[in-house]
């Protein structure tokens, strides 16, 4: 039975452990387990502080993994969430530049 009424569960938050909340459609959960998604998000949040970028990259990853269901995603980051690591950010920017160059046909 499909219902427009949301199922809501209220949980006490552990401020020392709770880093993020993920609200996502089936298309994300069809291809990523809770653990895999958390690992991916923690890594990406070390490379950028733009949560919109993290969401978009996660959706791209799900598409690459073969998800064919609808996908949308919202992230809420709390105080203990991973912080951007300058070294990770620099390496990520280098990789993006290489991929962009290859996409333009600049590779052999």
From TrEMBL:
Pfam families: PP2C. Transmembrane segments: none annotated. Residues 1-78 form the PPM-type phosphatase domain. One of its GO terms (molecular function) is protein serine/threonine phosphatase activity. This is PPM-type phosphatase domain-containing protein.
């Amino acid at each position: 039975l499909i219902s427009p009424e949301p199922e809501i569960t209220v949980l006490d938050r552990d401020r020392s452990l709770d880093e993020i909340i993920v609200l996502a459609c089936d298309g994300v959960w069809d291809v990523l387990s809770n653990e895999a998604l958390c690992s991916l998000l923690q890594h990406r949040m070390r490379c950028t502080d733009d949560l919109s970028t993290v969401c978009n990259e996660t959706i791209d990853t799900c598409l690459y993994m073969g998800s064919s269901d609808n996908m949308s995603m919202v992230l809420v980051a709390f105080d203990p969430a991973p912080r951007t690591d300058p070294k990770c950010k620099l390496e990520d920017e280098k990789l993006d530049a290489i991929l962009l160059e290859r996409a333009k046909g600049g590779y052999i």
